[in-house]
Amino acid sequence: MKRLWSSIASAALLVACALPAYAEKTMETDIAVVGGGLSGLSAATQATQLGAKVVVLEKQAKVGGTGLFCEGVFAAESKLQKRIGINVTKDFAYKLIMEYSHWKANSALAKHFVDRSAETVDWLDSMGIKIEYIGVGGHGGPLTWHVIAPGPDYLSGKNKKDYHCERIINVFSKYVTDKGGQILLQTPGTDLIMDNGKVVGVWAKDKSGEKIRINAKAVVIATGGFSSNKEMMKKYYPEYPDITPVGNIGKDGDGITMGIKAGADLEGMNTVQGYRPGLPGFHPADQMIALAVQPYFWVTPRGERYTDESNIVFWPYSNNSLVRVGGVAYAIYDDATRKMAVEQGIEMPLGEWVLAGTKLVKWEDAFNKELARKRGNVFKADTIEELAKQLNMKPEVLQASVARMNTAADTRKDAEFGKDPKFLRKVATGPFYATKLTPRHLGTLGGMKVTANNQVVKTSGDPIPGLYAVGTDSGGMYGDSYDLLLGGGTAGYAINSGRFAAEHAVKYIKQ
């Protein structure tokens, strides 16, 4: 019998040694922040300043998320605006947001955001984050876009990415860790911990697979939406679920899914941050795309013009019009337009990526390289008829569309869509070029329904104690379309919502 028990014990020991040791680890904190992007780090920074102990969970190998790609933030009535005579009042900005959304936006949330926006720019300044200049969202719009200036590490050459919103990420992450907070990389949050209807922590898993229980008095969800989750995109954005995300990695809807399990209501899930049309796999600064999205002449796969191309000024409009016709269009231009863009520069800027007046000296290499790949993205022909055949269009249809555009350019009057005459250009000098355009977006904009302080609410309207959603994990800032009228809105909301959640959470845990 002793020999039998000895054999069993030895076998059990061998099995135990063969299995991976996924022991549970427990951590204690005041506030757990799930997501280390712009909104999450804003929440962590504000909470730390208010004396809370903070743990940040970040799924990726570095912090920043989509916040690494933005350039500036919204504010109304900032000190800098007042100093240089820019008159964008809080009332004007608030009403513009609400009217643009047809009053579908969460009015209390929008008002809180606008009213605190200038103070938040002061808050950034107090941490050494300076403003380079104030610009517009869409060309000719209100001056609300406070573009972040290069930091000292950029100027010294130590870190050439210490500018725009990456400057904010650098400052926030350093502040949190310097003050004793923890940022756990490659450690996504997986589930909320509930106790009698209250959120009391979050489960996480590190890169080795070890589960971590984080006991927290409040949890802030900041995982950045669901643009990488194909099933969620099909469910919530059926108009064009394959829309190309720009600057979005690992946005799987983790936070929203956790919120749903905890009983969160949802809002605005069918809204995306529509961007300039383009192609998958091409950088926002690609010069081949930069010429294609100039506001000249776009047609459907049938060869018919479908919109006023100058709606690229407010690029969510160009996204909407492209989605409406099926999500595929072709920008067609002639050699005279190509020559103008290369030798004189483009008319329509692509934000800070490609400035107005930039000479597209890299266009030829980019276009010819893609042409040689024969992937159906770009085409070149000596005649419009030949180009139509390459595009599988009826030549007479495309020729008629070109003829109408040329008449509009000659008469300086667009009878089809009323486009500003300064953007009417002829398509007459061969060779002719075509670039395929498909919808792109900068992220999803719907999420958990929240209060003005970013508390997550249930379908009953009651807040879920201890749970907050910020940035693009929260819904309510938009109607059915991204608002580019007020430049810096999404980045500004990310930072402000993080602050709102942190402030309220600190008060909550002290009750």
Structural overview:
By secondary structure, the protein is an alpha/beta fold. It folds into two domains: 25-273 and 442-509, 3-Layer(bba) Sandwich (FAD/NAD(P)-binding domain); 278-438, Flavocytochrome C3, Chain A, domain 1, CATH 3.90.700. Helix content is 35%, strand content 20%. Strand 8 and strand 9 form a beta hairpin. Helix 2 (38-49) packs parallel to helix 7 and helix 2 (38-49) packs parallel to helix 16 (489-509). The longest helix is centred in the C-terminal third of the chain and has 21 residues, at 489-509. The radius of gyration is 26 Å and the shape is elongated. Residues 1-22 have low confidence and may be disordered.
Layout of secondary structure:
Elements: H1 2-18, E1 25-34, H2 38-49, E2 54-57, E3 72-74, H3 79-83, H4 90-100, H5 107-126, E4 131-136, E5 143-148, H6 152-156, H7 164-178, E6 182-184, E7 189-195, E8 198-205, E9 211-221, H8 230-236, E10 244-245, H9 254-261, E11 266-267, E12 272-274, H10 287-292, E13 298-299, H11 315-324, E14 329-334, H12 335-343, H13 363-373, E15 378-381, H14 384-390, H15 395-411, E16 432-437, E17 440-444, E18 447-448, E19 455-457, E20 463-469, H16 489-509
GO molecular function: oxidoreductase activity
Cofactor: FAD
Protein name: Succinate dehydrogenase
- CATH class category label of the largest domain: Alpha Beta
Overall mean confidence score, pLDDT: 94
Share of helical residues: 25-40%
Q: The CATH topology of the largest domain, please?
A: FAD/NAD(P)-binding domain
The computed structural class is alpha/beta
How many β-strand stretches? 20
The domain tally reads 2
CATH superfamily of the largest domain: FAD/NAD(P)-binding domain
